[in-house]
């Protein structure tokens, strides 16, 4: 493969390759392979710094996963002619971690939805005497809890993707979402250093995601209060659909 052939090349031959060719070769490599290649020696690292290798990787990832914060950062870099490769590495790290956490939240939301459907099916298959009174109240609590958990996971996804400090939950599904825009001041915070610490910047962003990732007790209560009408309406429609008692 192209990757294997590169690592078999002798050092002198590799160093003599024009930067344009190195850039082309890197377009066939995985991110970690490019990183290993760059670490081969100082001269090669300087050669790669003069190419658009990391800019292209960041652009390709952004095209695949169009996250708002990354869009705003790339726009800021374009407007201010920032071409430092380290910043593109930061964008790559942030994109990958954002994707990982959003996928986890999406998976959790789908699981809560599935659990709710199973609860509904289990209730539907119960004997008539188990569908009323205390059993119904216990089932209703479980259903509401699952609705809240699913809603929170989806709200947390939006909070992370929009780089919001606070959780925002719409009261009604028909409410129009406000256009999301990250303030210029918050975007500029990522570009405060001329020679940025790549690992440090990515780690700080990861710390922020971990801080907002898990819903707090206040956020659970906020979700329950905001969506209670919607949850109960949904359950009522389900009961009507299955012609089950609502008492």
Order of helices and strands: HHHHHHHHHHHH
Work out the strand percent.
under 5%
The helix fraction, in percent, is over 70%
Cα shape: elongated
Per DSSP E runs of 2 or more residues, the count of β-strands stands at 0
Radius of gyration: 25 Å
Low-confidence segments, given as residue ranges, are: none
Q: Output the structural class.
A: mainly alpha
Which sheet architecture does the biggest sheet show?
none
What's the average pLDDT?
Answer: 85
Q: Termini distance?
A: 67 Å
The tally of helices reads: 12
Topology:
Layout: H1 2-8, H2 11-15, H3 19-26, H4 31-38, H5 42-49, H6 53-64, H7 68-79, H8 85-124, H9 133-161, H10 184-188, H11 198-213, H12 217-241
Helix pairs in contact: 6-8, 8-9, 8-11, 9-12
Short synopsis of the structure:
With 247 residues, the chain is mainly α. It is built from twelve helices and no strands.
Question: Which descriptors apply to this entry?
Answer:
247 residues
Q: Could you explain the architecture of this structure?
A:
- This protein is an all-alpha fold.
- It is built from twelve helices and no strands.
- The protein is elongated, with a radius of gyration of 25 Å.
- It starts with a helix and ends in a 6-residue tail after the last helix.
